[in-house]
Amino acid sequence: MKSLKAKFKKNEVRYWSKSDERLLQAVEQNEPDKVTALIVKKGLCPTKLDAEGKSAFHLCASRGRLDCLEVIISHGADVSVTDGAGFSALHLAAKNSQHECLKRLLQVKISDTVSDPDHAKKKCCQI
Q1: What domains, with CATH codes, occur in the chain?
Q2: Within the chain, where are the H helices?
Q3: What is the reported pTM?
Q4: Contacts of 70 (CB under 8 A, 6+ apart)
Q5: Tell me, what's the pLDDT at 36?
Q6: For the chain, which residues score pLDDT lower than 50?
Q7: C-alpha angle 115/116/122, rounded to 5°?
Q8: ANK repeats located where (predicted)?
Q9: Closest to 22 measured CA to CA, from 46, 52, 6
Q10: Could you give phi then psi for residue 82, rounded to 5 degrees?
């Protein structure tokens, strides 16, 4: 059974600002330069969830915004993070037939797995 602290942390909603909303709009309009500027200048977290449980990162994957996705990945986003419904960006790209985003996310996941120093020590069933 999950601890009470873990349960509250999962449901915690961080403050959502106008800048966070602008980041979502930049992704929606497929403006990678604006996405870059907002992440760099405003220090925004593209995996931050809004009240509906969506993030700019997940929106990229579900809408096929490959250029914006590249920007977010290049700024160190954790590609395994899930949205409010429990879907990863990989799930959303597959669900919405966004093949290029799916391919890119798989490349990132594979490179993360290969660069994991503990990966080589484990047997197949332990992974």
Answers
A1: 18-110 (1.25.40.20)
A2: 4-11, 18-28, 32-42, 56-63, 66-74, 89-95, 99-114
A3: 0.77
A4: 32, 104
A5: 97
A6: 1-12, 114, 123-127
A7: 125
A8: 52-84
A9: 46
A10: -105, 160
Q: Token pair for residue 96?
A: 């919405």
Contacts for 91 with CB less than 8 Å, ≥ 6 apart = none
At 3 the pLDDT is 44
- Amino acid (one-letter) located at 125: C
Tell the residue number behind the tokens 């220090």, with chain if given: 43
What pLDDT score was predicted for residue 103?
96
- Provide the token pair at 4: 């009470």
Residues 110 and 121: beta-carbon distance below 8 Å: no
Amino acid making up residue 36: T
Angle among Cα 54, 92, 81 to the nearest 5 degrees reads 60
The pLDDT value given to residue 11: 44
Spatial distance between the Cα atoms of 60 and 89, rounded to a whole number of angstroms: 8
CB 102 within 8 A of CB 67: no
- Both tokens of 40, joined, read 């760099």
Task: Please report the pLDDT score of residue 70 as a whole number.
Answer: 97
Angle, alpha carbons 63-65-71 (nearest 5°):
140
